[in-house]
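Can you give me the bound-state structure? Components:
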Amino acid sequence: MKLKKRLFASVLAGVMLMTAGLTGCGGSDGGSGGGDSGKKEMELWTWKIAMTPGFEAAAEKFEEDTGVSIKVQAFSPDETYKQKVTAAANSGDLPDLIHWWASRGIGFENVLVNLTDKITDDYKAKFSSTAFNGSIVTENDVKNWANDPEKSDVVKSLNVGDCYHIPLDVGGFFTIFANTDILEEAGVSTEAPKTYEEFIENCKQVAENTDYGGFVFGGGLPDVYYNWMGRAIEAMYLGVDKSAGLVNRTEKMSDPENIKPLKMFEELVKSGGILDGTISKTIDDGDQSFAAGEAAYLLGGTFTYGQLSAMGMDVSKVTSFIVPAMEGSVAAEGFAVNPDPLTAMAISKDSEYQDEAYQFIQYITEDPEGISTFANGAYVVPAAKLTDETLGMLDPALQDMYSAMSDEPNVCWQVDNWEGTIGRKAEWTEFYNDMQKIITGELTAEEVAANFDKNAEAQAASGN
Amino acid sequence: MAISKRKMNRIKENLTGYAFCLPGIVLFLCVGLYSVCFSIFLSFYNWSGVDFAGTARFEGLNNFKNFLANGNPINTKLFWTGLLHNLEIGALTMVFVIPIAMVLAYVVTNIKRGAGFYRTIYFLPMVASGVGISYVWKGLFGAKGFLNTMFDTLGLDFLVVKQGMLGDPKTALIGVVVTCIWSGIPGTLMLYYAGLSNIDNTYYEAAEIDGASKVQMLLKITWPLLKPMTMITVIQQLNGAFQMFENIWVLTGGGPGGATDVVGTLIYTAAFEDAAYGRASAMGWSVFLLTAVLSVISIRGFKSDT
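Here's the bound-state model for the whole set.
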């Protein structure tokens, strides 16, 4: 009896070991599969929960046309998604289609299909003029990556013109949304302010005359103010040369003229026009505050209307305008929001259905039905250049957003694409952190500018 | 040389035990030990996260130089500032947690009625979800949160922090420390409670006969006998402070303006935002070594004191 018990225990231990081994070491057969029926099934991963309905609707119609089904899976938040994709890339379990940020040099191009051959001039002409800015490797990129000791070999191995993902949607920042009810209550004009100074005065009036805040944004993320608003004000005021000089370390931020946009931000803070607690808010928190009627103005982009609407706000009471320039700006004329690429779609090298995956990308970026089905479901402005017919198939709000954007490169675009630019290096990360300290009153604009210059100099001296 | 029956039985008996241990050992070797070794290895490479064999570049000590010795001045500044925040959090948490937990343990040990109730209340933070609780604290510390509203209502305007406690660089770290004290007390209390329960009452009786006062008994009997618990607490708090990540990430994300950045948030940013896994690993191991050194110093300090 005792022996039987021992035998049973040994068998049980063995089974446990086998199970652990099988579950631990077993791999999957990759993203795509044929299923039992032999039907082609692809997998698509995204981190944008809000865009999932768009992908699903387009996938459904794509299946009707081609018989190829696509399973859409969303993983959120951003970092979780990045980890998921990285882990899958290492274990050979990537999905067929990978939705990713539209940026160059993403670091895992070695496991993606190189789409460079497909990107002809004719092909690019089907998209907004700036749509491929985040996808095609430039000469500057290659030069900067070669000189950057921290860039990986995957990124360093990329060549000029390389393209690993196709842009799906575009959008622009530099947009301020206004709650007309609050402005009226504060006795402030509901018209778009003509200058940044007037905007500051409006924010101040709202804070003084009502219980609401003047201006709110995702201030908990250090770079939101600068990237969505500050750099436009700076570039319009200083012009392209000087603004690009700050990026390329040939200009000093503490220069009496160059510091003025930063000082104007300090004025905004001192006016009391920024809603208390803005410094702790995420982008969603900022939108939520505005949607809840806590502030008169919200900093956003072309994508913000959809967000406010989804939060239950009556958007008929909301107007929007482009970030106003400072008085004395030298490059404010005709400033408009450019269609900057936001997200893109890549194909896994391991996919069994690379042709079908590319076919799906073509469907949602070139076919009027696919474009509109995806864009309306995801509530995004498509990256494709739209014909009148396709534009008419879009949701009216998306049509407005598309029409409001200009293909003419604005001053910010010109700064970013300045010939020979080194791009924004680590001193900017510190600069964004320091800008938060202006909001809390810990640093003045002069101190922030001095820190920036000192950091830029130290970084350059250390070869970074 | 035949193996005796007794020995044979012992081997068989042990074999069953080893067989049961094997899944755990295999799992540890495959997952635990492999990860640790790979992470050490990784700290000497530049790698963006995919296909190590094909794309990693040997960097020697460059990853360490990057943030320890001005290889990248900004990363160096961020690392040392983050480390200082870790130390501040650890030191401040210990200063408050140890005496509070000791007093509460004494109370729980000595009260006659409702001890169970108090134990439940005191141990509650231990069973609550860390991330969930961090969101609650975030709400309490907000610009229009409970604390500001309460101070405002009570007319204590000087205590109101306009941007909320976590939104001001001067107070954000204090806010983080408060949450650490709150969550650190139960574990320490449990240790001291166990320690106090194990002190033989005859020590106190003998001291009382010798005419010792309560304070003398506390300093000469209770404190020395609780020293092993205090040592464990110090090491635990140090480890906790240096491994800190999720509550800071939820509460402040390291802000405002990097005021609450700790090495954990920097490691996370390096790995998952910059895809610099080598540098992230190097930072992790640097902090591990520092924690180990501090722990050894603490242990020696307590031993030499006993």
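A couple of observations. The domain at 62-305 of chain B is CATH 1.10.3720.10 (MetI-like fold). Residues 5-42 of chain B form the longest helix (38 residues).
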